[in-house]
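Can anyone check this?
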Amino acid sequence: MEQLSVNHLLGIKDLNDADIQLIFSTADQFKEVLNRPIKKVPSLRDITIANLFFENSTRTKLSFELAEKRLSADVINFSAAQSSVKKGETLLDTVNNILAMKVDIIVMRHPNPGSALFLSQNVNACIVNAGDGTHEHPTQALLDAYSIKEKLGDLRGRKIAIVGDILHSRVALSNIYALKKLGAEVKLCGPKSLIPKHIESLGVSLSTDLIKTLKWCDAVNMLRVQNERMDLNYFPSNREYAQLYGLNAKKLESLKKDIIILHPGPINRGVEITSDVADSKNAIILDQVENGVAIRMAVIYLLAAKLNISSK
């Protein structure tokens, strides 16, 4: 069996092209399983997985949990809001207590960039990064690229735009890494205040003009404005943001061509995208959700294959 080159999924930056293709081909197989009447395989019956979420999450948490259960793993869920973290317990103490229960894989979302890497260096378990602050969100980028590939075929030479709050977005960074590794051209679009300095060093182009960007691209990923991460006002108002960088039916029709529309969710309807666009035939937002389970099944299955179960 082909294997991943990594023992953890900390970020797209660590994956090579063969890793991404292996995850995609494995996801193809699991997608077929998910469309059967019985949507479960016994692949990970001997594996215990802990989902540690130190930040709020709905879709990612549910998607991972469903992926794990579809693989027949034993699953425990941890939410920081109801935990001893509130009493001052450190991340390492929390994790080591969970590992004492003989857990093999930890899926973690944490507000601090680098937390997944820190954990991988300090505990004896496989770590899957489900989002570390504004750093990376690798499984989201994999499911986004997989969803675009499903519609467009090979991504080599394809033009993909990422629009919106690039500055606070771990989705944007992981997407840039994934799309570039797959040979796509990437353009970032948004207000200058929401585009990080020096991001062009990652091999992307920049624009502040939404219409020009949409006319250029084959697919566009409309990012959410992350108000919860903002300690300053980066633009005057949501209304003005929507006028300049929100995608509505009128703007879409003016392109005189079809483009694929993605959104990592949750959607601020009427801000970065209007309901008529989010629910249109161009949007593959629900495909992303469906593909998310298959991609996460693939990631967990491939990482579990690298664990030495007999050493338990």
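Reply from J.R.: I decoded it. Residues 285-304 form the longest helix (20 residues).
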